[in-house]
Amino acid sequence: LGQRSVETGQADIGMVSWSPSNLSDEVRLTPIAHDALAIILNTQNQSEGFSLREVQDIFSGRLLNWQEVDGPPLPIQVVSREDGSGTHAIFEAAVMEDSTVTPTAIVLPSSQAVVDFVGQNPNAIGYVSFTFINGRVYAVSIEGVTPNLESLASGSYSLARDLTLVTPKQSQSEVNQFIEFVLSPAGQAIVEERWAKVR
Questions:
Q1: Taking each helix axis from N to C terminus, what angle separates 185-196 and 173-183, rounded to the nearest 10 degrees?
Q2: What is the DSSP letter of 9?
Q3: 98-to-67, 81, 164 alpha-carbon distances in Å
Q4: Between the N and C ends of the chain, which has fewer C-beta atoms within 10 Å?
Q5: Is 196 a residue whose pLDDT tops 70?
């Protein structure tokens, strides 16, 4: 939506959470932050973590009960995002490969809705940007690595992504000034502060 809004002239600045392959020659991309795609569980469902293959098996429906991954005797409820979501696109590319999300998944329209559902259902699992984590859900480690500032900076967390601004190549001066601020030490401090609140 962010990319399309800029390309059609409906917005001066958009944001995408993945690198689009169908970018118009009339727009430019400016990465402004690193983010983590977090696989989230209810805090009542404590886990040592998963391999990427286990996450794929859970979301594809090949694993149906938490006992199959050393969890409680509860059926697994998969929660996914809708087609067209940037978070959904990066999850499909980074995790699912040639598999598809199980048709029994609950599909929700926003990351906040995913967090709310998982926070209310101990048997649920979903995926969101790490910045949406609250006290009712937590980000499980993947391949032994938990998403945080350190694992993003080192590149050790496998489900990382760039958050990128999309703007017209011939931008208004106000747009250019805003981008300069976001990339400045002051702007990047705000980004780090946001991350610090959910660590």
A1: 60
A2: T
A3: 25, 18, 26
A4: C
A5: no
Read off the pTM.
0.78
Residue 119 has pLDDT above 80, yes or no: yes
Element containing residue 162 per DSSP (H, E): strand 160-168
Distance, in Å, from the CA atom of 14 to the CA atom of 44, rounded to the nearest integer, reads 37
Range 115-120, long-range pairs (CB < 8 A, 24+ positions): 115/40, 117/79, 118/40, 118/41, 118/42, 118/79, 119/42, 120/42
DSSP 119-150: HH-TTEEEEEEGGG--TTEEEPPBTTB--SHH
Strand 160-168 to 27-42 pairing: antiparallel
Residues in the chain: 199
pLDDT at 109 over 50: yes
Task: Give me 56's structure tokens.
Answer: 């794929």
Radius of gyration, CA atoms only, the chain: 18
- Span 79-103, average pLDDT: 90
Q: What is the largest CA-CA distance in the chain?
A: 58
What is the identity of the amino acid at 180?
Answer: E
Beta-ladder partners of 44? none
Q: What are 50's two structure tokens? A: 């998963």
Of 61-70, 73-82, 121-130, 182-191, give the lowest mean pLDDT range: 182-191
